[in-house]
């Protein structure tokens, strides 16, 4: 028996579902929260502040500017959407970092570690490497290892731009948000569903007639929205639903396109 053969070894099984989980969870929660609260805010009487909770024993009075019903509605919608975009982006980013770890471990195949190391200790350099990278180069590295690359840089940046406008400028488009022509262009992610007829893509819309047996195809796409300086950035629940599902789809496709050679699961060798 050689020295290498006598060393204890641990085999790590990589699960693609762990890559998809963060973005899928974020999409589910954010979509439900936005659907519920935008619907509730739309039906609520926002002409005045909400009443004091009945079970409140002591409460400070906080003075602030008088708000009209429209101003209060916009304030609440901005807050909800800014938080939702932030969490969506965090979920997408987390899935991409998990994919980075997956492809790194997959390519290494075998590593050596001291016997007193924990799994977190061993993974820390890879996780730190992923955390230091901006989104575009991180996705570029992961894409180089996937069966087919994914496009999501413009979509991620647009979600970041929308969050910044909602959070820092109360949803009113400013010079920082717009291009030189005074227009803010957001390229929101969406999943395009279509079929092919006479070599042309026909997008599925409400009322579209589709013959039985027609193959329905899906791919990641961008929906461009434009806002001029001084306009309010408006995002309806239906718009956000589309964005959230695209983030879910991104995580799902990221997991599906990872390397699949099960015979090269990473292995940890430790000295006796």
Describe what this molecule looks like in 3D.
There is one protein chain. Strand 3 and strand 4 form a beta hairpin. The longest helix is centred in the first third of the chain and has 40 residues. The chain is globular. The two termini are 14 Å apart. Helices cover 48% and strands 15% of the residues. The strands form 2 sheets. Strands 1-6-2 form a 3-stranded mixed beta sheet, with no helix packed on it. A 3-stranded antiparallel beta sheet has the order 4-3-5. With 272 residues, it is an alpha+beta fold.
List keywords for this structure.
three-stranded mixed β-sheet; alpha+beta; single chain; disordered C terminus
Quick synopsis:
The chain is an alpha+beta fold.
Rg result:
24 Å
**What's the mean pLDDT score?**
87
SS-based structural class? alpha+beta
The profile of the biggest β sheet is:
3 strands, mixed
Shape: globular
Strand content: 5-15%
- Spatially, the strands of the biggest sheet line up as 1-6-2
Helix content: 40-55%
Write down how many β-strands occur, each being a DSSP E stretch of 2 or more residues. 6
Order of helices and strands: HEHHEHHHEEEHE
Counted by DSSP, the helix tally is: 7
Q: What are the segments in which pLDDT stays under 50 over at least 5 consecutive residues? A: 268-272
- Report the span from N to C terminus: 14 Å
